[in-house]
Structure formats: structure tokens, C-alpha cells
Automatic annotation (TrEMBL):
Annotated PANTHER family: FELS-1 PROPHAGE TRANSCRIPTIONAL REGULATOR, PTHR40661
Species whose genome carries this gene: Hoeflea alexandrii
Protein name as catalogued: Helix-turn-helix transcriptional regulator
InterPro entries in alphabetical order: Lambda_DNA-bd_dom_sf, LexA-like, LexA/Signal_pep-like_sf, Peptidase_S24_S26A/B/C
Taxonomic classification: Bacteria, Pseudomonadati, Pseudomonadota, Alphaproteobacteria, Hyphomicrobiales
A Pfam family reported for this protein in Swiss-Prot or TrEMBL: Peptidase_S24
Domain Peptidase S24/S26A/S26B/S26C: 98-219
SUPFAM superfamilies: lambda repressor-like DNA-binding domains, LexA/Signal peptidase
Annotated keywords: DNA-binding, Transcription, Transcription regulation
Length: 223
């Protein structure tokens, strides 16, 4: 049975899972930072105040969680590790994987034609999880604020080149001109690719397929 206490406890648990406070979770979702404060959970008249469905939807989107994940927390259970990843995807196997900054990713020599790591100059990063093995995964470090509010400066994105992508997936795209960006795939046809910007201050983008070097799906983010 849903209750006021369980809904708020689930939000607190979701925030903790992502290393955030309740205020940090609200900020990550693009909401007023005080929206989830304990003082806001009851009205001045003492009545229970519930989070709106719109707020919950924004929180789930910002954390990459599903409704099933959230309901498991409402029930007091724990979701399995893989349920935190889109489309049943798993993060890469624990251990060291290649790491590169977004600025470097725009330079030549770091990727092969398929978007897999190549050449010298890669750093490494440890991935502290126990998922299924996915060869070829690598990490990109977010630099700057162009991906706010979803990804912040210093966040690590785990990318799987060659993975099947579909509308709504978060992806890293590299253009033929060397521009590298993290976007949401809106539409892909044999002739064009339409991308939605994570940051509303940055425009959405549209490319001819011939202008795209590669597209790789983001399967995990450290936040």
C-alpha cells in the first residue's frame, strides 16, 4: 500500500543510492533545491504534502531509474544492480577501463572507425561494479557545464560502442569534424540523425548521416 512515509523514504533512498542529499536529487532533476526538504513534506496546516507525478518523472529521468526501481524502494526492497541501467544494460566488468576527456575525444587518433578506443594517450579508471562483461567499453570524463543538469563537470560516462541504440537513449556522438557531444537520440533515419540536448541552454542538433563519425550508447554514469 502506498503511503506518504514510504514515498518520501523511497526518494531519500534513491538520492542516497546516487550519493546525493534530498536537495541534491531535486537539483539534479532540475527542480527547486528545497523541493524535497523535510520541511516541505508537510503543509503549514499539518497536512501531508506529496511529491507530484511530474517531479517523480523528472527524478527517474535524471537518475536513469525506472518506475519499477522506484516502486521497489517504496516497498522497502532493493533493486538488482542491472535494473539501474537503461534497457537492461549492464555497466562494464569491474576493473580498469580506458578513460578519456571529452576535449581529447574530439582530437584524432583516439578512436578507430567503429568508435572503439585506439592509439595512445588513454588514461584508466576503475569501475567498482559487478556487471556482465562487455568488451570495448570505455569511459569519458565530462568537462564543463554543457551537459547540466544531467551530467556535471567531472562525472564519468561509461560508453559502449557498437551497442544497439534507439529513440530516447542517451548517447555520445562524434561528428566528422571532431565535435564530441552527449545527447539524447530523438530520431534516426537512413539519412539523418536528430539529437536532443541535455542542457536546455544548448540547441538540439540535426546531422546528415554522412556528417556522423560514430554514435555510442551511454550505459552508466558516475554521479
Amino acid at each position: 500500500m502506498l503511503s506518504h512515509e514510504r514515498i518520501w523514504s523511497a526518494l531519500d533512498a534513491l538520492a542516497e543510492r546516487h550519493g546525493l542529499t534530498a536537495s541534491g536529487l531535486a537539483r539534479r532533476a532540475g527542480l527547486d533545491p528545497t523541493a524535497f526538504n523535510k520541511s516541505k513534506r508537510c503543509g503549514a496546516d499539518g497536512r501531508d504534502r506529496w511529491p507530484s507525478t511530474e517531479s517523480l518523472a523528472k527524478v527517474l529521468d535524471a537518475t536513469g531509474s525506472s518506475l519499477d526501481d522506484f516502486m521497489s524502494l517504496v516497498r522497502g526492497g532493493q533493486t538488482t544492480p542491472e535494473s539501474s541501467f537503461p534497457d537492461g544494460a549492464f555497466p562494464p566488468q569491474a576493473g580498469s577501463i580506458p578513460l578519456l576527456g571529452f576535449a581529447q575525444a574530439g582530437s584524432g587518433g583516439f578512436f578507430d572507425d567503429g568508435g572503439f578506443p585506439a592509439g595512445q594517450g588513454w588514461d584508466v579508471v576503475d569501475f567498482p561494479a559487478q556487471p556482465a562483461e562487455r568488451p570495448g567499453v570505455y569511459a569519458l570524463e565530462v568537462q564543463g557545464d554543457s551537459m547540466l543538469p544531467l551530467y556535471r563537470d567531472g562525472d564519468i560516462l561509461i560508453v559502449e560502442p557498437g551497442a544497439q541504440i534507439r529513440r530516447g537513449d542517451r548517447v555520445v556522438v562524434r561528428s566528422r569534424e571532431g565535435e564530441v557531444m552527449a545527447k539524447v537520440l530523438n530520431r534516426q533515419t537512413p539519412k539523418s540523425v536528430e539529437l536532443i540536448s541535455l542542457n536546455p541552454d544548448h540547441p538540439n542538433r540535426s546531422f546528415d548521416v554522412s556528417e556522423i563519425d560514430w554514435i555510442a550508447r551511454i550505459i552508466w554514469a558516475s554521479q
